[in-house]
Amino acid sequence: MFGFVLVIVGLAFFMEGLERALFSLGNIMASQLTAPAFLGLALTDTAALQDWRSYGLVYCFAFTLGFTTTVAEPALIAGALKANQASGGFIDTWGLRITVAIGVAVGVSIGAFRIITGTPLHYYIIPGYCLVLIQTWFAPRLIVALAYDSGGVTTSTVTVPLVTALGLRLSNQIPGRNPVFDGFWLIAFASLFPIMTGMSYTQLTES
After folding, report:
1. What angle do CA 200, 119, 59 make, to 5 degrees?
2. Domain boundaries, the chain
3. What is the pTM of this model?
């Protein structure tokens, strides 16, 4: 009973720390990055605000944010170490971390592009999961569960607050976007693409 109380208290402090630190940091970064003045756009220039070519810095930032937060994700570090031990060294710890981080970076960049362009979500998600199913058929059995799990561990304590803040701010900034729908779906991209890169990594290293 005492241990359960300690866990609850620890979780409460942890969530408060996230609220005061990472969420605030994410909001500051996202609001500054998507400010029309930073992008060299005028608030009254609706056409430029809706033109995906005006947001090159956003795509670069989204890629960098996805990569760095994933490399620093504690859940992924722990999972990569366990995978290295369980596979007898076949799965390299840093190799897996970098591969998954690239997947998240690409996913967040494409998700930001989707928010800006306003294209339907299913244009990306359905083909993405079809590709995942095809990869699953050909990938080594050793990596399938780990690759699927990589999509979950990347949406943890470090990645989610910052990526979510970027999605919400970006969808608030673009005229005609819905923060509830467009903003939160950025996490779906951060979960999908690591599965692809995780299986691709072992397919390449095995060949």
Report:
1. 60
2. 64-207
3. 0.82
